[in-house]
Amino acid sequence: MAEPKTKYDRQLRIWGEQGQAALENASICLLNCGPTGSETLKNLVLGGIGSITVIDGSKVEVADLGNNFMVDESSIGQSKAKCVCAFLQELNDAVKAKFVEESPEALIETNPSFFSQFTLVIATQLVETSMLKLDRICRQSNVMLIFARSYGLTGFVRISLKEHDVIESKPDHFLDDLRLNDPWPELQRFAESIDLNATDPVIHKHTPYVVILVKMAEEWANKHGGCLPSTREEKKEFKDLLKSRMIDIDEENYKEAIEASFKVSTPRGISSRLRQIIEDSSAEVDSSSSDFWVMVAAVKDFIVNEGGGEAPLEGSIPDMTSLTEYYVNLQKIYQAKAEADFLAVESRVRNILKRIGRDQDAIPRTTIKTFCKNARKLTVCRYRLIEDEFNSPVLPELQKYLTDEDYSVAIGFYILLRAVDRFATNYNRFPGMFDGEMDEDISRLKTIAVGILNDLGFNGSTLTEDLTNEMCRFGGAELHAVAAFTGGIASQEVIKLITKQFVPMSGTFIFNGVDHKSQLLLL
Amino acid sequence: MADPVSQASSRWRDLDKLLLRPGNLVGPNFDPGTELRDDLQEYAKVLVVGAGGLGCELLKDLALMGFRNLEVIDMDRIEVSNLNRQFLFRLQDVGKPKAEVAAHRVMERVSGVDIVPHFCRIQDKDLEFYNKFNIIALGLDSIEARSYINDVACSFLEYDAEDNPCEETIKPMVDGGTEGFKGHARVIMPGVTPCFECTIWLFPPQVKFPLCTLAETPRTAAHCIEYAHLIKWDEVHGGKPFDADDPEHMQWVYSEAVKRAELFGIPGVTYSLTQGVVKNIIPAIASTNAIISAACALETLKIATSCSKTLSNYLSYNGLEGLHTKVTEFVRDKDCPVCGPGVLLELDTTTTLQKFIELLEEYPKLHMSKASVTYRGENLYMQAPPVLEEMTRSNLTVPLFDLMGKIPKGIVHISGTATKNDKKTSCTRKLRVLFKVIDGDTDMDTATGS
Ligand SMILES: [Zn+2]
Fold first, then answer.
1. pTM of the entire predicted model
2. Which residues does the UniProt record annotate as the domain E2 binding (chain B) (predicted)?
3. Residue of B18, B290, B327 with shortest CB distance to A515
């Protein structure tokens, strides 16, 4: 076996060893191993997922050779689950691969408790009735669930679970936590120790912009009755003031200061994103609360007490032009403040745990530390039951999708994907499966789709003829490239859910393979 | 078991829904029917450039979307760190050429598909090689390689007298790229949609640390690593080139970086980071590659068959925070030196081929040195290999006008080395050569022209 560190190097750089460990401890169940399911699992097996269980009751047919890479000529007539499982095992011997030759529909019907052994269930190509049942089963037993479907040139991916909390959301662009609008005494003192009017040009051009901005903001405030630049004119004036202190046009640190000068004027206090979380009713904790919400409660207390309205400091600073010594000292000042904030939060966590009757040390220090470092980036995702979404979608959103040109194809496919399942319940096949009944199927499908819209209180005129025809043309086909796309999306979301890093998608992703203008529908 | 005839027809049961049935949301001139499927399998030739994370997926996807004539080109050998995403490779394949193993694995599983591997650099193939494909699918991770293939594909493009692109000379490209949870897929129809060069700003050059920061004021772990890699290595090893693939070299850089970091009190130097910085490693995972390749393969099928509308013209995907996909319709740069009608060069009828090659070095939009020149597929002068150089050397003293059959204007292709952002890259350009009239023999032209 290859050294896993080398084999997984390119992904360890994304989710780290903790993320990898979470993947290796996860056990995944796949329902239906057509191309959509097989491709989803392939991406997870390559990444070193702990174990997989493939459930499929069908035998490999000739048509499977035209869209599924995991079966070949020698598989014809054999259990599809067995063949796919064997190929997946070949990709990574570290994965425990199992299969069950049974129809997912039957399993959902007869053995609902079967699913509680898994970390996550990936359900592919299920029709509506089975989806709704499985959704309830997984919700009750607290198993994460993700649906993926490929249908002609469309398809969808939908996550379903009660709540998913992300500490390490690792956003791409996020404003650094420098507190230039509200420097604490140690930072202020450090700034005071440096003379901006230093005559040594090397020192002048290597004074970090954080120091420049802290000092210049103070100078500004002294001249403006304690206020920081706020209007557009004032901000411009402040930039000019910075520019006037340059002794050479090539001073990178001053250029950085001018570029970052807006950080002096950002409003103090926490973001609306964090406010929403601390004001969530789950932040009123009791013995049944999760560690996440216990830590939220502690941070909430911190903000109104030691924090003086601010979240715990993140503690890291971006690279900036500076003498090494200045930079290292600045780093230490930020780290010291972050450490102090963390200790304050930690003691609050311990007190809360004691108050709610749990072991004071139930949450490890490192977890609390990571939580504090990411306090500004916490994310809570909640998902409705599919049944609730189908019965009572968010009407203003639905209204918007039905009238907004950008969403017309996506919402059309959304309704039609539900309509084909009802069609299948009525006729025991998908519309357009047989060439001879094309015209009848088109009008039947149209009637069903218009019926769905009417039941929701909308008229069916928004559904275009073109789209309904197209849906019948697809005839339930599962095309490999579409399956690889939706399966790829599904596996990506599974990784985010299991590593508890990055923010998983919300709503329903509707794939539009016609012109790729896919959409997320939040219903 | 079913008989072979019905096997062949039912194998493509799902794909046939798209290729055999008429539709309203389809491309221009869509002509559904079994003939379309058969033609796709018999005549459509696709080149997959790169057999890495995207290339492996592309070969599989294209084979299962009905293509049967595929070729793949890649100069790399399989490494252990490829195995987390390049699913056609196994541990026992490490060290073997990617193109060969990838082609073999797909042919093994998808019967009927023919994949020809090319284990070489993309520059090793001549224009004729690239011209035989209907579509070129790119699964690359470097800007230079994309630029090169883009140059090649655009060099086939011809314009008519009104400066409209001639349809039969358009060589479509489908390009994918990924980085971590992000990626893009795009369709390039040279002369119609923007080529890689038209939107080169999408790929800003990589920022390098100033040497004085590395030497005098290091602040981050990366600064310490680059100091060891770019400055200290040469100081100590004077002349011996650094090899990023040699673990001993990497270990040396790492330990030097650790020493420097300790000296300055800088945290964070690790062996993994050292490799990342020195080799400029881009994080890569299976899922993103699968998503982007699938989009590219689907677009390739649409270009070949018109079975649906096409992506117009750039799809971006970001799975970092939630899920975002966006289609942007970029516009062509009308003055693009690569996909435009060509750089216009006015010459005297007496200008020799030698003089012409020298001119290319100074010409503002080109700056091309060591140019080889072809005209209508014929080599006028080749810098390499030596055999060809010798064969074509005698042309150097002949006027280009004569070599081109004494026509007043024509298109020549040149390939050589161009300097861009202080970096030498091989590139191919199309030139519109116009010969200046000289008194006497072209009086009539001047008269009728005014
Ligand atoms: Zn161009």
1. 0.91
2. 345-436
3. B327
User: Chain A closest CA to B321's CA: distance in Å?
Assistant: 5
> A15 vs chain B: nearest CA distance in angstroms?
10
CATH number for the domain whose boundaries are A4-167+479-521? 3.40.50.720
CB A63 within 8 A of CB A477: no
- Token pair belonging to A391: 């019965």
Q: pLDDT for A120-163, tens place per residue? A: 999 999 999 999 999 999 999 999 999 999 999 999 999 999 99
Give chain A positions within 8 Å (CB) of B218.
324
Average pLDDT for residues B282-311, to the nearest whole number?
Answer: 97
Tell me the nearest-neighbour CA distance from B89 into chain A, angstroms: 8
Domain with CATH 3.40.50.720 in chain B: 16-204+284-328
∠ CA A175-A257-B224, rounded to 5°: 80
pLDDT value at position B450?
A: 34
Catalytic residue among B120, B195, B212, B427: B212
**Which CATH code, of 3.40.50.300, 3.10.290.20, 3.30.1360.20, 3.30.70.1130, is assigned to B343-442?**
3.10.290.20
CATH annotation of B16-204+284-328:
3.40.50.720
d(CA B267, CA B221) in angstroms, rounded, equals 6
Q: Which residues have CB under 8 Å from B38's CB, separation 6+?
A: none
Rounded Cα–Cα distance for residues B230 and B274 (Å)? 12
Give the distance (Å) from ligand 1 centre to CA of residue B398.
33
Considering chain B, tell me which residue range(s) the CATH 3.10.290.20 domain(s) occupy: 343-442
- Domain ranges in chain A are 4-167+479-521, 185-265, 272-382, 389-473
Q: Find the angle CA(A239)-CA(A240)-CA(A244) to the nearest 5 degrees.
A: 120
pLDDT at A305 over 90: yes
Residue B231 has pLDDT above 90, yes or no: yes
pLDDT bucket at B442, cuts 50 / 70 / 90:
very low
C-alpha distances (whole Å) from A356 to each of A298, A304, A353 are 13, 21, 5
Structure confidence by residue, pLDDT tens digits, B320-368? 999 999 999 999 988 888 898 877 888 999 999 999 999 888 887 788 8
**Cβ B413 vs Cβ B155: under 8 Å:** yes
Contact status of B265 with chain A (Cβ, < 8 Å): yes
The SS3 assignment for A107 reads helix
Q: How far is B138 from chain A (nearest CA, A)?
A: 16
User: Which residue is it, tokens 């051009």?
Assistant: A205
pLDDT in tens, A111-121: 999 999 999 99
Distance, in Å, from the CA atom of B218 to the CA atom of B258, rounded to the nearest integer, reads: 13
Minimum Cα–Cα distance from A76: chain B residue: B1
Is B311's CB within 8 Å of A477's CB?
no
| Cβ within 8 Å, pair B319-A489 | yes
| Interface residue B314 vs chain A (CB under 8 A) | no
Q: What pLDDT sits at residue A462?
A: 83
Instruction: Give the span between the Cα atoms of A270 and A375, in whole angstroms.
Output: 10
Q: Is B296 a residue of the active site?
A: no
DSSP B91: G
Which residue in the set B64, B219, B284 is minimally distant from A324, CB to CB? B219
Collect contacts of A517-521 with beta carbons under 8 A, ≥24 apart. A517/A406, A517/A409, A517/A410, A517/B327, A518/A410, A518/B325, A519/A401, A519/A406, A519/A407, A519/A410, A519/A411, A520/B322, A520/B323, A521/A397, A521/A401, A521/A407, A521/A410, A521/A411, A521/A414
B318–chain A Cβ distance below 8 A for any pair: yes
CATH T-level fold of B211-278:
Arc Repressor Mutant, subunit A (1.10.10)
* Residue A3 clears pLDDT 80, i.e. is over it: no
Task: Give the nearest partner residue to A63 out of B11, B218, B319, using CB atoms.
Answer: B11
Whether cis (ω within 30° of 0) applies to the bond prior to B379 is no
